[in-house]
């Protein structure tokens, strides 16, 4: 089994992962928790730099008794022209799983096609399934449920947005996305969400999106790989800042999420990020516990 898209998991499997993540979080300091991945290794391919993804993965493997090998493009022959397929075949002879944080979704799909071990998408330009698992874990901690929650995404319709759309469809959440024209979510992802039974509403008015929302989520306006568009994007997204004026339209108990890193003063203001509505640090911590549950599920 691989985790390339959040839609690779059924709703029942998502709940099982989240339940296990909750248990692992509660028992993190329990010496009897066991090392279920003892003597197992994962190859972690990073084409993009990372803080949360790399640290959470390496710590998760260590706490489960296994070992993570950090492999940048410079560390692999991929950087010198070796094919993804050959890399997948060879690594499968050494390790028990492959995880990859890549520029192009096709790369992680090709790894999964040729690998003989589980492959985990740590981020691609299309999806970020490990992030949305942490997000859903955080939502359940705050609200005790997922079904029926209204999630408002404000900003760029990027990879995290795409995974959130699919997760909302799978788990019975209402999803509204507010993006500037031309910066909305992937059309194929929207069609897939429709087929899963949970259509997403896409609007250009952030106030309309946030009105009555239980969860308000945002991300950087300029993702890695979009730097050449930085100036144009900052102009286009000026109305889409998550600030106190916008948050007052959300539900009284609404929480704010941001997968980080944040550009404070751009997509989110300090008073919101550090304020009482923010669940951002819990969300960030939950990357560890949720990926532990994923690793155990795929590698045991």
From TrEMBL:
It is an enzyme of class 2 (transferase). Transmembrane segments: none annotated. GO terms for molecular function: ornithine carbamoyltransferase activity. It is found in: Cytoplasm. It catalyses: carbamoyl phosphate + L-ornithine = L-citrulline + phosphate + H(+). The keyword Nucleus does not apply. L-ornithine binds at residues 159, 219, 223-224. SUPFAM superfamilies: Aspartate/ornithine carbamoyltransferase. Its EC number is 2.1.3.3. Keywords: Cytoplasm, Transferase. Residues 2-141 form the Aspartate/ornithine carbamoyltransferase carbamoyl-P binding domain. Belongs to the aspartate/ornithine carbamoyltransferase superfamily. OTCase family. This is Ornithine carbamoyltransferase.
């Amino acid at each position: 089994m691989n985790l390339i898209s959040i839609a690779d998991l059924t709703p029942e499997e998502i709940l099982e992962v989240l339940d296990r993540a909750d248990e692992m979080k509660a028992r993190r300091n329990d010496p009897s928790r066991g090392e279920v991945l003892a003597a197992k290794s994962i190859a972690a391919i990073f084409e993009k730099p990372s803080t949360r993804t790399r640290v959470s993965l390496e710590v998760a493997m260590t706490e489960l008794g296994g070992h993570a090998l950090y492999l940048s493009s410079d560390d692999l022959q991929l950087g010198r022209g070796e094919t993804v397929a050959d890399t997948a075949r060879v690594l499968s002879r050494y390790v028990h799983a492959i995880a990859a944080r890549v520029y192009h979704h096709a790369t992680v799909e090709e790894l999964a096609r040729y690998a003989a071990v589980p492959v985990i998408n740590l981020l691609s330009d299309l999806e970020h399934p490990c992030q949305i698992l942490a997000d859903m874990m955080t939502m359940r901690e705050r609200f005790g449920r997922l079904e029926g929650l209204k999630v408002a995404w404000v900003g760029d319709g990027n990879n995290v947005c795409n995974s959130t759309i699919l997760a909302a469809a799978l788990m019975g959440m209402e999803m509204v996305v507010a993006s500037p024209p031309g910066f909305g979510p992937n059309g194929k992802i929207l069609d897939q969400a429709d087929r899963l039974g949970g259509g997403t509403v896409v609007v250009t008015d952030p106030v309309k999106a946030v009105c009555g929302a239980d969860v308000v989520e945002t991300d950087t306006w300029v993702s890695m790989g979009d730097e050449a568009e930085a100036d144009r994007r900052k102009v286009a997204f000026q109305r889409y800042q998550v600030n106190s004026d916008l948050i007052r339209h959300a539900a009284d108990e609404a929480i704010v999420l941001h997968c980080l890193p944040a550009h404070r003063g751009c997509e989110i203001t300090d008073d919101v990020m550090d304020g009482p509505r923010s669940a951002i640090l819990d969300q960030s911590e939950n990357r560890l516990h949720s990926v532990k549950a994923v690793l155990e599920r795929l590698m045991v």
